[in-house]
Amino acid sequence: MCGIAGVFEAEGATGLVASILFAIQHRGQESCGAAARDAGGRIVGHKGMGLVKQVLDEEVQNRLAGTTAIGHVRYPTAGCSDVVNAQPHLIELAEGPVMAISSNGDLINYGEIRTRLEREGVVFKSDNDAELIGRLIAMYHVRDGLTIESAIAQVQVELKGAFSTVLMYRDRLYAFRDPHGFRPFVMGHLNHEGEGEPPSEGTVFSSESCGFGIIGARLLREVRPGEILRLERGQPLLSVGHAPLEPRHCVFELIYFSRPDSSHFGENVYQTRQRIGACMAAKDETIHNGDDLVVMPVPDSSNFIAHGYAKAKGAEFGMGLLRNHYVGRTFIKPTQASRDEGVKQKFNPLPDFFPGKRVVLIDDSIVRGTSLRKLVRMVRSAGAREIHVRIGSPKVIGPCFYGIDTPTREELIANRMSEAEICAYLGADSLRWLEVADFEGLLPGRRQDFCTACFDLDYIYPPEGFATKTNAPSLREFQPAL
Ligand code: SF4
């Protein structure tokens, strides 16, 4: 996962980009960077390993002076964990560094296109999808004489996968998105109050709308799937291309990844999560309300799912686990060892909260199951009488190829154990998931507009030879169990 930001023609653009990136830091904590156009028209950049507050400090913001800037926070889903893969990437053309790019999402045909470009003599500095997108656009522009917008349109057709992208070229800024709209991408404005497309000046972009509150910008709308936006000084913001294919918005953004105060696909994320919780409660006849019942989230990503569940049951909603916010998301830690250590550091049970209680413990998903197992043990040792685990997503049975770092099929616990085995492995009294069929009516918009491939293997671009919904072998093939 990653997050992107862009600001066109506003005082202190790099500082504004840093603020947006800070608000979307949950999307990536490994590295970050920014690039700005200086007074001479050259694009200068800075990137480093670490958090936004550390890497894009005041000194860097002063050095990257300019009124247009882009930025990126990275979690490595493809390519190694090294600063060369941090973004933005600066692309040198004959006249110097006049292009910079940041993108969120993974490409399925990265290898094939990179091989093709290398045969043409293109030299890469990283293993990163965004650099490939930038170099492909530069090649069509320089070698074939296409305008930048035509080059982007060409690239949108050729690339398979997810890319929400901001690109600075000379004094312009472009924002474009893959034709399926996998990853979220929104546009706002610092001072435009009216209807219709705003002036280019003051336009801002972010992976999530929670990035706008922090800079006082107003959410205008999504960058549409397949759309290309051009921003030019003195010009209205222009939609210069729009070639959508069937939408495939990532459903996992709604369940887990996005901040609950963001708005995606026409609805606030927290509302979708509450609805998921309510749906689970309505179907959960085995749990009866009582004085000893408490519904409790694994904080923070499951808070609103648990809240929806508790409200629908008329049960007590309790925050029995305290989360240390100075530990990052365990899911996006790169290794199992760092994830294990993260769980211990991250959660602590409230003293005297659990003895004698029946606990409905709500989590957003089970991937490997190792973190949840530790939490169940923690709650049991704190005195809970019963622990009923409820999961706000269906079983994760396939990896993501579009920008979320879920593991291989072999590592996913739902592919290795039966439901009863997983329940026993977790040490829970009962275990239930949301069903894929439940998505109907729960999502903002039409069910078919969402990608649910990691839950049902319905991949629109499966890598060659990969088992999909139609040719998947039995889920039990990965025995023996952990
Ligand atoms: S495979 Fe899963 S995580 Fe990836 S885009 Fe689809 S729904 Fe999202």
Helix coverage percent of residues? 25-40%
Which homologous superfamily in CATH is the superfamily of the largest domain? Answer: Aminohydrolase, N-terminal nucleophile (Ntn) domain
Strand neighbour order, sheet with most strands: 3-2-4-1-10-9-11
> What class, by secondary structure content?
alpha+beta
> Can you summarize the main beta sheet?
7 strands, antiparallel
Please name the CATH topology of the largest domain.
Answer: Glutamine Phosphoribosylpyrophosphate, subunit 1, domain 1
The gyration radius over C-alpha positions equals 23 Å
CATH architecture verdict of the largest domain: 4-Layer Sandwich
> What is the number of strand segments?
24
Low-confidence runs:
471-482
Number of helices, where a helix is a run of at least 4 consecutive DSSP H or I residues: 14
Overall body shape? elongated
Task: Note the gap between the termini.
Answer: 27 Å
CATH class of the largest domain: Alpha Beta
Number of domain units? 2
Mean pLDDT: 91
User: Could you say which small molecules are bound to this protein?
Assistant: iron/sulfur cluster
**Strand residues, percent:** 15-25%
